[in-house]
What we know:
Elements: E1 4-5, H1 10-13, E2 25-27, H2 32-35, E3 41-47, H3 52-67, H4 70-73, E4 75-81, H5 86-91, E5 99-103, E6 111-112, H6 119-130, E7 144-146, H7 151-155, E8 161-167, H8 172-187, E9 194-200, H9 205-210, E10 218-222, E11 230-232, H10 238-249, H11 267-273, H12 280-291, H13 295-314, H14 317-330, H15 337-359
Parallel strand pairs: 1-2, 2-4, 3-4, 7-9, 8-9
Antiparallel strand pairs: 3-5, 5-6, 8-10, 10-11
Helix pairs in contact: 3-6, 11-12, 12-13, 13-15, 14-15
Amino acid sequence: MRPTLLCAAFSILGPLCWLARAEVQVLTGSTFKDVVGGGHHVLVEHYAPWCGHCKALEPEYNIVGDTYKADRDGVVIAKVDCDAHKALCTSNGVKGYPTLKWYSKGSTKGEDFNAARKADAIVEAVNQKAGVQRRIKPAVSAVTELTSSNFNTVALDPAKTVLVFFGAPWCGHCKSLAPKYDTLANAFVGDESVVFAKVDATQEADLANRYGVTGYPTLKLFGAGSGEPETYDGAREVADLLRFVNERAGTERNEKGELGKGEGRLAVMDAVLAGRSIDAAVVAELETTAEGLQGASKRNADLYVRAARKVLEKGPEYLSKEAARLEGLLKGDSISPEKRTLFMLRKNILRGMEGAAAAS
């Protein structure tokens, strides 16, 4: 899981809203005192958004955040943006970034936390201080390894958008990019139309030469239906890469894998519904329109057709009831990535159809 804001209702619910979470908690000047000095040990990273060392620490620190739960371990992993909360960081004795401070249970006095800035070293130090024995969960990569034997099948699939990372094991910039690339791949888990892949160019020199790779890392995007790749030459931060992939793939994913409200919606299907109540004629027209589409568009169009058929069977109230049911399911943590993506797409389409029905 990725960092999120504390509950908006923090002042009402108190710490109960984050007790069961395993993630990095984002603290502010007003919420800091509600977390630190209470019934949990707290490790706080004081950082600045522009700080290079902070950016390098972020993926490691996120792993630490995913390792501990407050209600289970008595440990909270948190961070404070010192640009936004300068007074708080100054009062905590912060003079450089990143600065890690350990606050023992019941104490508001921070101790310098001097473990190496790697997830395993930080976890080992937290375990010693808190008297627990947590281990880092083995990383499951969503990045597809490509070789000459599977490159054409994966990268040149006309139904998919594929970003390929050409790198080398000894390349320092590749090592820096790798955790960010994993974050991107994890954000798209469950969406079969977008693939993140990598090639060890030292082992697959023919592939590297074939696509003009002369330095590392090199990122090339193979768009759906296009055999000619586009070389990415923008900034190598998660936000920039995410924006690039979303633009090229027509998706609206954020870093946590959540879909924007417009993803899944299709203009050609919405046009059929505009100003009309759903009846047998509308369903037939939706079916005909869906037949002319391919790839992800065909998948989404079929979801329109499925929903419209249900409206004929159960009435227009089906749209709002089913969307509400899906929203409830999405709040759980036990759904597979594939199911989560499907539920988010269906919810977006149902809400769009509900709006069209209300306007008819």
